[in-house]
Design a protein that fits this description.
By secondary structure, the chain is an all-alpha fold. It has a single domain, classed as Mitochondrial carrier fold (Alpha/alpha barrel). The chain has 9 helices and no strands. Helix 1 crosses helix 2.
């Protein structure tokens, strides 16, 4: 008679991890994120600066963007080492790195292929924490650099931070969680997917862009609270009028920045990572 010690049912189950080429996979996570961040940083730097300068009445959107484009075209070496560019590059490289590292951690512990991509609460929480912390720091610096000109630079208030955080939560949800959910629902033909773009790529562009209609007022109100602090006598109607006045053009500008940030950047990050990971599997 076999003893309980020898019974297969009572034998400890050895957990399997997928650690194949793990150092290279981690390196790929950062390389893919860095490539995406470097690609989208120039246009986002220009647009973010223009939105803030327009809200603070320093310059119109078109004037600010024209100045920055000239700076990029004629002094690119100075543009890419400038503080605004560095802040944007850090923001998106960090955000994509957090998403990639979570995917690698999950594929390692769950023993799934290296190219596997996760969707759900863990992805939302991880990317939100990374994006929120980096974006709030970036926004505080941009607001001080390009906000209303005063003799002294004011600290960014909690109300402004809260509005920026709410804006970013909407964007993160639309960028990392909505695309895989809405992609199967898009009415695209197989011919379109073969010739032009897959459902996943279309959803990656569409979802974060559409959410800007709702998140832009939060961004503008946060800027207004910095430019005209609560201590000043400014009525809610006056603040609402300012937000409404800048809403349309700022929403278009934010769509133009979100499409490269979480659309183009997301596609670049996804394709580079997937291509390399499949070779390492």
């Amino acid at each position: 008679m076999s003893s309980a010690k020898d019974s297969p049912a009572l034998s400890p189950v050895k957990r399997q991890w997928n650690t194949k080429n793990l150092p290279r996979r981690l390196g790929t996570d950062f390389i893919a994120a860095g490539a995406a961040g470097a690609t989208v940083a120039p246009i986002i730097t220009i647009i973010d600066k223009a939105i803030i300068e327009n809200a603070s009445n320093r310059a119109t959107l078109t004037t600010s963007m024209r100045r920055s484009l000239l700076f990029l075209c004629f002094q690119p070496h100075r543009f890419v080492i400038s503080r605004p560019f560095a802040l944007i590059f850090l923001l998106y490289t960090g955000t994509y790195s957090s998403a990639n590292l979570l995917d690698t951690l999950t594929s390692t512990t769950a023993a799934t292929p290296a190219s596997s991509v996760t969707h759900g609460t863990a992805k939302f929480a991880t990317t939100s924490v990374a994006n929120l912390s980096l974006c709030l720091y970036k926004d505080s610096q941009f607001t001080k650099l390009f906000g209303a000109a005063t003799s002294t630079t004011r600290p960014v208030g909690l109300a402004t931070y809260a509005l920026f955080a709410a804006r970013d939560c909407l964007t993160i949800f639309a960028s990392f969680n909505l695309p895989p959910r809405i992609a199967p629902l898009l009415p695209l033909s197989k011919r379109f997917e073969e010739k032009a773009m897959s459902r996943a790529s279309v959803a990656q562009f569409l979802a974060p862009a559409a959410l800007q209609v709702f998140s832009t007022p939060l961004h503008l109100l946060g800027l207004d609270l910095y430019n005209r602090p609560m201590g000043e006598v400014v009525s809610l109607r006056n603040r609402a009028a300012k937000v409404w006045h800048d809403w349309g053009k700022s929403a278009v500008a934010r769509v133009c920045r979100i499409v490269p940030a979480f659309g183009l950047g997301g596609v670049i990050n996804f394709k580079i990572r997937k291509s390399v990971m499949r070779k390492l599997e």
